[in-house]
Structure formats: C-alpha cells, structure tokens
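Case study B.
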Amino acid sequence: MAAPEIQNPIIRVRDITVQFGATRVLDGLNLDVKRGEILGFVGPSGAGKSVLTRTIIGLVPKVAGRIEVFGVDLDASNTAQRRGVERRWGVLFQQGALFSSLTVRQNIQFPMREYLNVTQRLMDEITMAKLAMVGLKPEVAERFPSELSGGMIKRVALARALALDPDLVFLDEPTSGLDPIGAGDFDELVRTLQRTLGLTVFMVTHDLDSLYTACDRIAVLGNGKIIAAGSIADMQASQHPWLRQYFHGKRARAVMS
Amino acid sequence: MSGDPKLERIAKGNALALCATGTWTASFAPSLERIVADAEKLAGSRQNIFIDVSEVSKLDTFGAWLIERLRRSLTQGAVEAQIAGLSANYASLVDEVRRVKANPVIDGSAVTISGMLEQIGRAVAGVVGTIASLVDMLGAVLAAGGRVLIHPRSFRLTSTVHHLEQVCWRAVPIIVLITFLIGCIISQQGIFHFRKFGADIFVVDMLGVLVLREIGVLLVAIMVAGRSGSAYTAELGSMKMREEIDALRTMGFDPIEVLVLPRMLALVLALPILAFLGAMAALYGGGLVAWLYGGVDPEAFLLRLRDAISIDHFIVGIVKAPVMAAVIGIVACVEGLAVQGSAESLGQHTTSSVVKGIFFVIVMDGVFAIFFASIGM
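Model:
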C-alpha cells in the first residue's frame, strides 16, 4: 500500500496469503485498521472478502503472513493471550449463526456465562440493555431464532457480538437480505453503537448506502490484494476500472443523487 | 488511575456524594455488584444524593448499567438521584442505558397438580396425534403411488435406485455380519443347554424356526430402522429446515411424490432382500457352530433342517418384511417432515423416529404372530 503507515493500528495484516488447493485467494495482502474507525470492506463477489475476515478471526488457515490484533501476533500468542483477544472482539456472521436451540436471551448470555462471573440478575438486565441498544423489544428475549425475521436475526446476532462489550466488531455483510429501510436503520445503529461504545468496526459489505452513510474509510479487495484504501472521495477519484464501475455505475449514481 | 473499582461516600452537609473510581467494566462485575448493593442501602438516608463518576477510568455497558441501577434505587419519591461528572465519551452510553425499561419479568412456571394433569392430557393427545399423522402419511403415500401408477412417467426411477443402493446394497455387509453372529450365538446356547437332555440335534429345529419366522426379519427390521430410518428423518428434516420442501411445493411438485415415495419404495424392496440374506447368514452361522462346537456335521444339519422347517416358516417370515419396511418408512418420513427450525428439533425427531420405528416393528411382529397362529401357519 502506498498510504502512509498507520500508527498503532487495532488490526495489522501483513503479507497474508491464503490458498485453497491450487487457487490463491489472498496474495500477499496488507491492511491496517485504525482504532475507533468503521472500515468498509468491498470487492467483487468471490474476491475473498469473507475469507480475509475469517482468516483474521482464525477460522481459515493461512499459508504465509502475519496478523496482529490489539498488538498481539495471533500466531505467536499462547492460549491465554488468544483468549484475551477473542474476548475483546465480537463477530456477526453473514447468516447470524445464532444457536438454534437457545432463546434470544440465552444466545446473548452465552458468551457472558462463559467469560464473566456475574449474577443471573445482572446478565438479564444487561441482556435487556443490549436488546434495547440494537432496537429490539424486550418480548423478543424469550423467542427462538426460528421465530425471528431476517432483520431481527441480524440484530440479535449483533447484540450477541456486543455481549462482552468488545473493542472490535467484525460484521460480515450485515445489511444483506434486509429491506432498504431496515438496512438504513442498521447502518445508523452501527454508527450509534460505534459512538457510544467506542467500537472499531470491520464491515464487509456490498451495500453502497452503508459505504456512504456508515463508513469512515473504505478498503477495496481485488486480485487477492488491497487495490485501494481511503475515504469515499478517494474512491470516487480513483481511476481503477473496477472502482470506476463500482462508484460511478448506475446504482452508485442513484445512491449519490 | 485504573485498578479496582471503588465507591467512596463523601458527606457534604445535607447532601451525599458517591464518588466512583477505578475501572467499571465487565471484568470487575462481581465486586461492582457488591459495591452497588451496599450503596443501595443508603437510599433515603439523605435529602440529596448524587453519583460522581468523574474519576472512573473505564466504563462499559456493565458499569454504566450498574450506575444506572444504583441511581434508580436511590431515587426516592420526587427527589431524583443525579449522575454528575459524566465525560462526553461516556454520556451517550449512560443515556443509552437509561432508556432501558425496568427489570425483565421471567416467569418460572411452578409445578402444580393441574399442570401435571395438563401434561398427561397433552401426552395422551400427542399419542392420538402421532397415530393420526401416521395414517395421514400412509394415505398420502398410497395416493401418490396411485397417481404414479396412472402416470408412470412421473415415477422417479433414478431416485428410487439411489435410495435402494443406500438402504439395501450398502447395508448388506453389516446386516450379514450381525445376523451371522446372532445365528452362531443361538446355536451355541441351544447346544449348550440341550446337551443336558441329550437333545443336541433339536438345536437345528430351534434355529430353523426361530431364524426364519422371527429373528431374521425382526433383527433386520430393527437394524434398518436404526440405520435407514434415522437417515431418512435427518435428510427430510434438514431439507425442511432449509425450506427446500417449501421450494418443491411452490414449483408445483408434491414432496410426497418426489421425496417420500422413492424412499418408501426402496425400503419396501430392500427389507425382504435383507431379511432373506440375514436369515441365510444366521442359518450358516448356526450350522457352522453346530458343526464345530456341537459336532453336528453339515449333512446331518441339512437333513434335519429339511425335516424341521417347511416353506410356511419362510413365508411367515418374509411376508412380514415389506409391512415392517412400510411402517419404518412412514414413521421416518412423518418425523422428518415434522422437524422445526432448530438443530435440537432435528435431533429429537431423529431419535424419536428410531424409537417409534423399533416400537412399531415389534408391535407389528406381535400382531403377525397372533394372526399366523389363528390361521394355523
């Protein structure tokens, strides 16, 4: 990347290579995420956006490279350090990944029960607070995931990701499958939570609206590398063919107007 | 500045200031709860109480909520306790928490006599419902079979052959192995006990009648219920969970015709074949043990077997097989289509498919025993 080195980033990814069989998905990728920003991560379908997210979280093994989160090198860390890092991040999966046999309340309390030593009363109260934060009614707490709509599942999954008050949240296509109003609300929600909780947000998205309204900075993935990173204005000024198409296409014009 | 959280009490005339210091985060939640519970007792002790949070080094939702909880319990009547010294960073968090409504009401249902009676009633109604849904499925399968007979082109041959391979061909090794072993055991036990009466040779009668009439088909049916019944339930259940069955329906296909009928047909064809192979393996095993352990040589065994059994015994056994297959298939498909959205539900229905399948197989076997006894076969 030509951009100047960011001081003390919350995520530092260096020369990451990920390969599935003979196909190289990520090829020497570098990326820094600043503390307290909302980074929108875009790229064509199948470019490996989810793969990068999953590699950072540690679900996909990498062939080469180094990942530091909160200044901890995840490969060199011991179990306790890794636990410490995992406790400080929350992940919202594309499909929500709520535990289907637990109620919403139990889903949100699951990480609290494992990591914290708090009373049931406090857990219940915090659960209600989290539900209110993500804009859900308290009645939802006793429902099962199969009884929720798509938008509600995303919100509950976000509440679960936020259960331990993480410093960093990964959102994998949070607004996909939501109606435009719901998606707009969700962007607003992410913004609000980022302000109130001082979060850093790493958001994989396809949604141009999200990029305009929610993100501080945008990184673009292509050919296994970051082809551009910067503000929305930088993206629009870029001469890269895919970026031109993406930010000056029919849909982009509709969003901007 | 950071470190263990504290709440210091500073009296200023008529007012009381509670100064929070340290880290008010989730990691300190147990001690924070204790501190807050202690401070809650101060409610009403002074005219004017306020909570000073200017010295808090770190605050998260847990800390913010506990401060809010303290503020709520200190608020008495018209005098509202105030939070002072809130930095801009944390003000929005505290505001957010303040909007949270009062405690959630989680009703733990108590055990009552009427509740227990209700449960018994529901269980009985559930049994009736189960039988109704089995009959319903039987009817639906027969109707689908009728439609296929009228329009043979709609029959799914590929699917049927695929399932036949799964439930029949691939089941042969394990079925043959287990029935062989059971034949060995029956023969060994028979010889061991009959020898006391000098009646070693009658073990052949016992083995022949038992294997051909009962053990062969019953054992194989139970194994098929465990092996293929569970697979059917899990397949159909996960298709139900992913809305694949709804998708079929909207495209104008009948799930019974597309999914259930080929499976049922495969099972109905497979079970007699497996039961026959199982009976042969059991007789072979029994004969082997009779020869090696009991000293009954193969010619004597075969001669005795020819005297002891007739074709009736074989027919009694093999006639039961397709009926048991139909019962297993219907139970498995009903359970599969009853799966709800959760993984837990899939597990429950798969378990119940196997349990009910085996139960009905044994019940059917009893009914057949009465029937054949009364017609003298």
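DSSP finds twelve helices and four strands in chain B. The remaining cases will be described in the next quarterly update.
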